[in-house]
Design a protein that fits this description.
The complex is a heterodimer of chains A (about 110) and B (about 240). With about 110 residues, chain A is mainly α. Chain A has 6 helices and no strands. Chain A has one domain. In chain A, helix 4 packs across helix 5. Chain B has 12 helices and 4 strands, in the order H-H-H-H-H-H-E-E-H-H-H-H-E-E-H-H. In chain B, strands 1-4 form a two-stranded parallel sheet. A two-stranded parallel ribbon of chain B has the order 2-3. Classes of the chains: A mainly alpha (about 110), B alpha/beta (about 240).
Chain lengths: ~110, ~240
Amino acid sequence: MTEPIPLLEKIGKEGRVWGDLCEQYGVDNPDPPWRVLLESTCEVLNEGSCVLPSLERRDEEDDLVDGHYKHIPHPERQLLALAHSMILRGVISEEDLEKHMKTVMARLNAV
Amino acid sequence: MSNSDNHDHKAAPMVDEISDFEALEVAVRELCIEKGLFTQDDHNEWTEYMHTLGPLPAARLVAKAWLDDDYKQLCIDDPVKASLEVGINWITSMPSNFGTPSDYCNPRILVDTPTLKHVVVCTLCSCYPRPILGQSPEWYRTPNYRRRLVRWPRQVLSEFGLQLPEDVEIRVADSNQKTRYVVMPVRPEGTDGWSEDQLTEIVTRDCLIGVAQPRADRKADDKRPIIRAVHAYGH
């Protein structure tokens, strides 16, 4: 089992999962709108760049889901596992990811 | 008609909040693009393709086979060719136009009989016949299902509510990078004289994976009532 990644641990602990949001907003769509985007990211990472072949990713996802992200539902845990695998390979850094998440948050919440 | 007439309906509720998970998905994707791992166009193409997938083509394939013995034989002999008749081209319909990255080009149709039931799993990861069946359900990906189905298929099927008599043999098909399986269940009683469209409606996704049997009184898009268990002690 790899070391925990503090940023992802924090998201797993404090982030609001789709099921909670659905309950609050009265939505019955079983999947968050970003699920299909996540699936596509996994596919293109496998297909184009070979940075993260599907089988490796799924193996790591199984390990991570059994460990660090055990109590997180799907697809949130698939997303955390993908980010974990990318950081583990040094493809993206935890710092860059945290910084970019703040930028994304500000952009998506802009009014 | 006035504008107010056009908008005289109540909008479906929406989640009006950006979660950390949503921001994480965007951030990972954009950093990958920034690093040149793929382009936005590559990603868009996959996303649009993913949106078109669903279990309907496989349901129609089964319905056609129930009505036409020659087509049923074609499904067994050459599933790629049989899939063309329900609008699925395994070879060129993927965004890459040369099959998928993991070559999902060897589909197999597993034909059930009254004494033989097939059920599909991917013990290694979560391989699934997406071109013809859409995205896999969450439970199909879980290590629990993958591990236990091959050891105790009868028990796992009973957890799905599918109780099979002892004289029915269960065969578990393990998907892999090259070969993807779809189950052709037995046509249920009470469907004599039905059209292809009617039959298609009762072949649900779970029937095509093999964890359910089609029934004349249950359509794929029916609302599923939850029948609560009765507490043994009446609490």
